[in-house]
Amino acid sequence: MTIATSPASVRLRRLALALAPVLAVILALGLAEFLQARGALPVVIPAPSAVWADAVKNPAVVTRHLTPTVLKALTGYAIAAGIALLAAAVASMVVVLRAPIYNLGVGLHSVPLIATTPLLALWLGTGPPTHVLVAALACYFPMLVGAMQGFRAVERTRLELFHTLSASPLQQLRYLVIPSALPYLFAGFKIAAPSAVLGTITAEWAGAELGLGALMLYALGAFDINKVWLSVVLACGLSAAAYAFWALAERLVIYWESSTELKD
């Protein structure tokens, strides 16, 4: 027996779930501000207001370093997504290639980025191509796994029904394969988005002139605590925004799951 849930209560529950992380961050910032004002925190943990004041005083520093990281992360993410979707499609059509494609993805993912980046910097230099490549390597595997599982998620009974109705391959792809694969694809996209940011920042540690990774190194070298924390906050915010983008897109695209939730 199921209990009907009103749309208002469902929306209220969603709002509470969305606001919970925001309230937790606000509470943590307020606690840090209070403890720093009382001298209860070490000097390496500044007051959030001091970090904010430093960012407001030098907004050009934020934009100058944030923009390159965003562009390189997006480029690497797009390249990895294209390759992952193509590889998963090939694996779903050619069974003999399924294991090699998956094992290659596992091998690439098992190599630590902190070890891969210096080697790529030696071979390709420390410019943006290396940063984009590291970002693509960082986010490739989650999207590959999601796509491979998604393309195999079609129920056999539904596939037989489409054959019975003489549906064309394009119709099967549009109305059956892609809708069945969407939850798995979005799961991979969400996990991979913060990884692209992390990969870009890691690559920028290897001699980049601009980017959040470079800002971190410069601030550490100058022992500028405020800018160190500013770069960390920007990196966390960028990763959270990347994840939130795909979470929102999933909510909008997979609308039938929302309808099911309203009926539960």
What features would you describe in this structure?
This protein is 83% helix and 0% strand. The chain is mainly α. It has two domains: 1-41; 59-263, MetI-like fold (Orthogonal Bundle), CATH 1.10.3720. Helix 3 (59-93) crosses helix 8 (169-204), helix 4 (98-110) crosses helix 6 (128-151) and helix 8 packs antiparallel against helix 10 (225-253). It starts with 6 loop residues before the first helix and ends with a helix. The mean pLDDT is 86.
Short summary:
By secondary structure, the protein is an all-alpha fold. It has 11 helices and no strands.
What structural keywords apply?
264 residues; mainly alpha; MetI-like fold; 2 domains; 11 helices; 0% strand; flat
Write the layout of secondary structure elements.
Blueprint: H1 7-37, H2 48-57, H3 59-93, H4 98-110, H5 113-124, H6 128-151, H7 156-164, H8 169-204, H9 212-221, H10 225-253, H11 255-263
Helix pairs in contact: 2-10, 3-4, 3-6, 3-8, 3-9, 4-6, 5-6, 6-8, 8-10, 9-10
The end-to-end span amounts to 10 Å
Poorly predicted tracts of residues:
none
- Write the H/E string, N to C: HHHHHHHHHHH
Q: Please give the CATH architecture of the largest domain.
A: Orthogonal Bundle
Give the rounded overall mean pLDDT.
Answer: 86
In percent, how much strand structure appears in the residues?
under 5%
Structurally, the number of domains stands at 2
Largest beta-sheet characterization:
none
**SS-based class:** mainly alpha
Helix segment tally = 11
- The helix fraction, in percent, is over 70%
Reading off the top of the CATH hierarchy, the class of the largest domain is best stated as Mainly Alpha
Provide the CATH superfamily of the largest domain: MetI-like
Gross geometry: flat
